[in-house]
Amino acid sequence: MQLNRLNVDSNLQSEMDYGSFEFPLEVFYDDLCKYDIGFIRWHWHKEVQFSVVKKGTVEFFFLDKSFKLSEGNGVFINSNILHQMKPVTQGSIVINIAFNTTLIGGHKLSLIDRKYIYPIVNNNNVHFMILDNTISWKKDMITNLFEIYDSYEKSDFGYELSIKNFLCSLWLTLAKNLIPNLNLKSTINKYEGERIKVMLEFIHNNFSKNITLEDISQTVHISKSECCRCFKKYLKMSPFEYLMQYRIIEASSILRNTNTSISEIMNLVGFNDPSYFTKVFKRFTNYTPTQYRKQIK
């Protein structure tokens, strides 16, 4: 069984290419349970993203909130916003559409970019917006998203023009309803968000070492209790739980891409007890390391 994987750098930026320079858009049909750790991990990218749940129920996580969205509902995720998605029900599927706004706005000095794109993409108060299909204009946006997906899948002659047309309609609806309300204050403390990113980057760069809660908290000069509060508030888990999750993500990558022995992998990712490594690995993936390696071969 081939499992999907989202690679990120130490700052959690996605390393995936979203389309090409000529056509900077990518459409994904994501069965979340088929990702290597059973969900799409924390990440961000410069592209804006629209997601719609095609099947099941999915929980979307942002730095200060999480939402469970059922089939037919979606979300707009702004550029550079940290997010994660997990299936609530088995077999949950999400259509994810990510694109660079130059596709609809042209160069950064264009009138379209200045009037309709820049005010949204560069506004610190706009992190995401739920697309509730019981609201007429949001339902129209969801319809556009399915039309984009269908055009991309069929790839008929001129499909790129059709997609750009649907994207313009989608963005016009978003701008009409969002820009007049951009004076709303953000509920996210931007400074705390940056602190979280710094602490996560420290974990990513040092996960194989015997790092402590104090080590993590000192990267941003806060107390251990404040560190735990930030992680619980924004990531819905403790620093230790995040460290364990990240170690298992790295272990799964080595299992999948190399023939390195399981005992050596255990040491490479910061564990020194085989039984504990197996227990933690199974908690996050539902497989033992041996079972996981067999599944992907």
UniProtKB/TrEMBL annotation:
Q: Which Gene3D superfamilies match?
A: Homeodomain-like, Jelly Rolls
Q: Which SUPFAM superfamilies match?
A: Homeodomain-like, RmlC-like cupins
Domain of life per record: Bacteria
A UniProt-annotated Pfam family: HTH_18
InterPro entries (UniProt xref): AraC-bd, Homeodomain-like_sf, HTH_AraC, RmlC-like_jellyroll, RmlC_Cupin_sf, Tscrpt_reg_AraC-type_HTH
> Where does the record place the HTH araC/xylS-type domain?
197-295
CDD domains with a match to the protein in the record = cupin_RmlC-like
The protein's GO terms of the molecular function aspect are: DNA-binding transcription factor activity; sequence-specific DNA binding
Q: Does the keyword Oxidoreductase apply?
A: no
**What's in the keyword line of the UniProt record?**
DNA-binding, Transcription, Transcription regulation
Name of the featured protein: Putative HTH-type transcriptional regulator YdeC
The scientific name of the source species is: Clostridium cylindrosporum DSM 605
For this protein's source organism, the top of the classification is: Bacteria, Bacillati, Bacillota, Clostridia, Eubacteriales
